[in-house]
Amino acid sequence: MGADFSNSMLFEAEKKMWQQNYKNVDLILADDETIWDKLNLSFDRITATEVIQYMTPEQIDAFIQHASNYLNEEGKIVLFDIIDPRLYSLWKVGWFSQNFRFWKTLPRVGMGYFKQISAILKNRPRDIIGDSHSPYLIEKIANKHGFKTEHVKSMYYEYRYHTILSKDIMRPLRICEALAEGLRSSYFTT
Ligand SMILES: C[S@@+](CC[C@H](N)C(=O)[O-])C[C@H]1O[C@@H](n2cnc3c(N)ncnc32)[C@H](O)[C@@H]1O
Questions:
Q1: From the CB of 67, is ligand 1 less than 6 Å away?
Q2: What pLDDT digit, counting tens, does each position of 124-162 carry?
Q3: Whose CA is nearest to atom 6 of ligand 1?
Q4: First to last CA, the chain
Q5: What is the pTM of this model?
Q6: 165 inside domain
Q7: Residue 125 contacts residue 46 (beta carbons within 8 Å)
Q8: Domain for residue 146, yes or no?
Q9: Is 50 in the pocket of ligand 1 (CB under 6 A)?
Q10: Are 76 and 162 in contact (CB under 8 A)?
Q11: Closest ligand 1 atom, CA of 51?
Q12: Ligand 1 centre distance from Cα of residue 3 (Å)
């Protein structure tokens, strides 16, 4: 099953499915909020590829929370191609290019700041490819919903990474241990 809120993108997906002779795929017109009401089954994997960059931290939080209700046992959520803010800044000034020269980066850094301030003042997105989200933020949101995370570097883009979220089955045990420890220490201090 595939979903996108753009009809033309679903059309492109459909063309690819014909070319590859994929038969048992349903395509749905929906966004990160409306998709859940259209589902009546659960999944082994729920993935989002190059989409997280268009979502706010609040949307990512809600997406993970909803997705966790539609996962089979041992199911995983995989967020592909998230933009890492630290590496993206370096990529933009040419850090990963073969002929990187520090002094050449200074005008680019200045221009980058100018463009960002101008975008903020005009209330436009700060970057045309969307927003970056650090692995720490994704991990914090995932942990909140009972997932542990594994981050994997993209093979194709120096500044992108993938995050695999799996249910943290040891979490309830750790919470019980922490509670027991809290009770024990309060018993001895009273
Ligand atoms: C860079 S494209 C990636 C398309 C596809 N996932 C792929 O890997 O080829 C980003 C896609 O995300 C879709 N998109 C962005 N925000 C979305 C949202 N909140 N809900 C559903 N689709 C969204 C856009 O319509 C666009 O087709």
A1: no
A2: 767 778 889 999 999 999 999 999 999 999 999 999 999
A3: 49
A4: 57
A5: 0.84
A6: yes
A7: no
A8: yes
A9: yes
A10: no
A11: 12
A12: 8
Domain extent at residue 47: 31-84+133-189
Residue written as token pair 């499915």? 17
Task: Tell me the per-residue pLDDT of 57-91, one tens digit each, with 9 for 90 and over.
Answer: 999 999 999 999 999 999 999 999 999 999 998 88
Q: Which of 190, 166, 170 is nearest to 178 (CA)?
A: 170
* CA atoms of 40 and 45, how far apart (whole Å): 15
Nearest-CA residue for ligand 1 atom 20 is: 31
Range with lowest mean pLDDT among 9-23, 54-68, 86-100: 86-100
Residue 47 falls inside a structural domain: yes
Residue 163 in domain: yes
Q: Is 49 in the pocket of ligand 1 (CB under 6 A)?
A: yes
Does any ligand 1 atom lie closer than 6 A to the CB of residue 69?
Answer: no
Q: How many domains does the chain have?
A: 1
Q: Which residue's alpha carbon is nearest to atom 9 within ligand 1?
A: 49
What CATH number is associated with residue 57? 3.40.50.150
